[in-house]
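Page 47, continued from p. 46.
Same chain as before, 173 aa.
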Amino acid sequence: MIQVQSGPSFVSVDDRLSINVDERLIETREGTLLISVLNLLEKNLPQICYHESLGTIGTCDTCIVDVNGKLERACSTAVYSGMVVHTDAPGARSARLEAIHRILKNHELYCTLCDFNNGNCSVHDTARSAGIDNQKYPFTRKSYPIDDSNPFYRYDPDQCILCGRCVQACQNV
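Result:
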């Protein structure tokens, strides 16, 4: 449960606390992941490796925000009383953009020809929302063959961004 709090800060009751997100006072529960708060606030923060069902993986760095003057991953940072978050601070924006570029080094950006270009691709959506049309770092092909032996998925190493979601899903879900 997240509530916008107006006026002066309040004293924590039970396990609720107050954080400041982009100059808005937000009430939330202790232990909540910052990414959950930001998602409920519809901050549209990139989060390629994070999925609510899989939990924190922390490999992509696309959800970096400024927390009390330090860059933190929103997916692995639990909220705490007095936390001040700036989602659009220049350092955080720059770090997220660099993270997206590093991911694209592992993924050939040919979205118009991709079989999976169905409007549900977090890599494509993230690159587009960041205004990326061209890859900053050259795409590096991998030397592994495509594996289509499984009836449920096809593994193409040249499209793998090394986010860890598939590993997390297979091992823990």
